[in-house]
Structures are given as structure tokens and as C-alpha cells.
């Protein structure tokens, strides 16, 4: 919250694919001192088009390739007339490396999403309407979006999160770092740096977006399935209730029997997503 963000230098690179509805480009932009890679789907036509920034869930950076993740959403939303920028994040694909990102609880991803929005807003591209921008994040990317909303109030016009991680960072630390035996070294590094949650609760409150939900100014739509065994449905209820209590405009759509990957009811969810962005962008 205390730092300044200066996302800039958005560049459309090589054409990856041309479809009947949009052209897919390689893109890059600047986030602080780093160059971040990604892809952008630009709808056919003259533009300018409203823009959606997509924040993907966890994919091992060792196997990640540019634009990987949220493939269905990238395609569908571009076909609805949105320019879709899918950021790779630092340490992924063609992005620059940040060796401290894991110990810093991956907060660098939040900076990369904020700077993606700012890079779009300052771009002179005739394809992009920088006055109409939304965020969409899935799983880990849902947490990234929640972080961005509390760090930079008014950053975007609306936000959607799918099957999100918890808005309490302790839940995520216990689930995927302290709770994983093979991540013992990273657990020790994080505890050495900040203290364990039970020993330094103030730090862990202050690194959780839920603590600062009173700063959220954008309407938020949450999608979550009751059978999600990666991110429990209780996390969605807790996030919804905390946002509502803080005065934010929030809607939770619950999908009975739907799992983390969203398969049978994905079409219904994406149609709701497009309608939500249409209303607010």
C-alpha cells in the first residue's frame, strides 16, 4: 500500500494466432524494474475495446508457458468484445526473475497485476479503452485480485474471482507451505523473516487482504463450487461475508457439486461473468 506503482511500456509483439473473432499477440510491459510477459487477445474491429486483465492460478513456473491458464476465459471474453490481457507474472515464461518472490509470499504477482492495469491505462494503443478495465483471477489469481483491490482502491471498474484461495493469508500458508513437507526450507525462510502466525499475528493480519476490505471500491463477483477440494467453499463464504461487512458490493454465486476446475457449470459461470462486466464496464 505504501509503495508507488508505475506500470508502463505495454507493447504488442508477434501474432500468435488469428481466429475469426480476435487476434492473439505476445505482449510485454514493465512492472517496477522488471519486464513481464503475457498474451493479449484483441477483438476484430476498430476498437477501442474495454480491457480485462486475467490473473491465472498456480502453475509450476518450471513448466509454465506464456499465456497458459484461463484459456477458456481468454477465448470467450475476447469473443464478447473485450481485449484480454493475460499476464504471466514475474518468474514465468518470458518475464524477468525475482528471486525473493516466494519468501515475500508472492506479493510480486500483485504488483504485476496492478502494473498491468496501469500499463493499459497509459497505453496509446487504439485497440484499448483504458477508461474501462476489469480484473479476473482464478484460484491463486483470485487472491492476487483481492490483494490488488485493497492495495489500489479504484484501480479497476469491477472484479471477478473464481475458486479463490483464502483472503486470510494464514489459511494459504498453512495449506500450501507449512502444510507441505517438501516445502520445509521455504517454511523456515518465511518464519525466519516474519515469524510464525501464532508468534507474530500482527504481521499476518497485515498481509491478508481481508484485513483491509474496507478499502475495496469495486463491485466483486465470486464463483465457487461446493465440491472444491482445493480451495474449500468456506473460504468463499468467509470472503463474501467480510466484504459485505466492510461495505463492499459483493455477489457470491455457489455451484452445487462443482469442483475446483469448473467443468459442468463453467458455461453458466462465464455467461454471468460477461454480463457482470457488461454492466460495470
Protein architecture, described:
- There is one protein chain.
- The chain is α/β, with parallel strands linked by helices.
- The protein has a single domain (8-168, 208-280), classed as Alpha/Beta hydrolase fold, catalytic domain (Rossmann fold, 3-Layer(aba) Sandwich), CATH 3.40.50.
- It is built from eight helices and nine strands.
- The protein has helices at residues 71-79, 107-122, 140-151, 169-176, 184-194, 201-206, 233-245, 266-280; strands at 8-18, 22-31, 34-43, 49-55, 83-87, 128-138, 158-162, 220-225, 250-255.
- It has a nine-stranded mixed beta sheet with strand order 1-2-3-5-4-6-7-8-9, sandwiched between helices.
- Strand 8, helix 7 and strand 9 (250-255) form a beta-alpha-beta unit.
- Helix 2 packs across helix 3.
- The longest helix has 16 residues, at 107-122.
- The model has no long low-confidence stretch (mean pLDDT 98).
- It holds the Pfam family Peptidase_S9.
- It comes from Phytoactinopolyspora halotolerans.
- One of its GO terms (molecular function) is serine-type peptidase activity.
- InterPro entries: AB_hydrolase_fold, FrsA_esterase, Peptidase_S9_cat.
- Keywords: Hydrolase.
Amino acid at each position: 500500500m505504501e509503495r508507488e506503482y508505475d506500470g508502463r511500456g505495454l507493447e504488442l509483439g508477434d501474432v500468435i494466432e488469428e481466429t475469426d473473432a480476435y487476434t492473439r499477440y505476445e505482449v510485454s510491459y514493465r512492472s517496477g524494474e522488471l519486464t513481464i510477459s503475457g498474451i493479449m487477445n484483441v477483438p476484430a474491429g476498430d476498437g477501442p475495446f474495454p480491457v480485462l486483465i486475467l490473473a491465472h492460478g498456480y502453475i509450476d513456473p518450471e513448466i509454465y508457458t506464456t499465456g497458459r491458464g484461463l484459456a477458456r476465459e481468454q477465448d470467450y471474453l475476447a469473443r464478447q468484445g473485450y481485449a484480454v490481457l493475460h499476464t504471466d507474472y514475474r518468474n514465468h515464461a518470458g518475464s524477468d526473475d525475482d528471486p525473493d518472490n516466494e519468501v515475500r509470499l508472492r506479493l510480486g504477482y500483485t504488483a504485476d497485476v496492478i502494473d498491468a492495469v496501469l500499463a493499459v491505462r497509459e497505453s496509446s494503443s487504439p485497440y484499448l479503452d483504458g477508461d474501462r478495465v476489469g480484473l479476473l483471477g482464478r484460484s491463486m489469481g483470485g487472491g492476487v485480485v483481492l490483494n490488488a483491490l485493497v492495495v489500489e482502491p479504484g484501480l479497476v471498474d469491477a472484479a471477478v474471482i473464481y475458486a479463490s484461495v483464502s483472503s486470510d493469508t494464514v489459511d494459504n500458508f498453512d495449506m500450501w507451505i507449512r502444510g507441505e513437507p517438501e516445502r520445509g526450507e521455504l517454511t523456515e525462510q518465511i518464519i525466519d523473516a516474519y515469524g510464525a502466525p501464532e508468534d507474530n499475528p500482527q504481521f499476518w493480519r497485515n498481509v491478508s487482504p481481508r484485513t483491509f476490505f474496507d478499502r475495496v471500491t469495486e463491485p466483486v463477483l465470486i464463483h465457487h463450487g461446493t465440491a472444491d477440494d482445493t480451495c474449500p467453499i468456506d473460504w468463499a463464504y468467509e470472503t463474501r461475508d467480510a466484504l459485505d461487512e466492510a461495505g463492499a458490493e459483493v455477489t457470491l454465486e455457489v455451484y452445487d457439486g462443482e469442483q475446483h476446475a469448473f467443468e459442468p457449470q463453467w458455461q453458466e459461470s462465464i455467461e454471468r461473468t460477461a454480463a457482470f462486466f457488461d454492466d460495470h464496464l
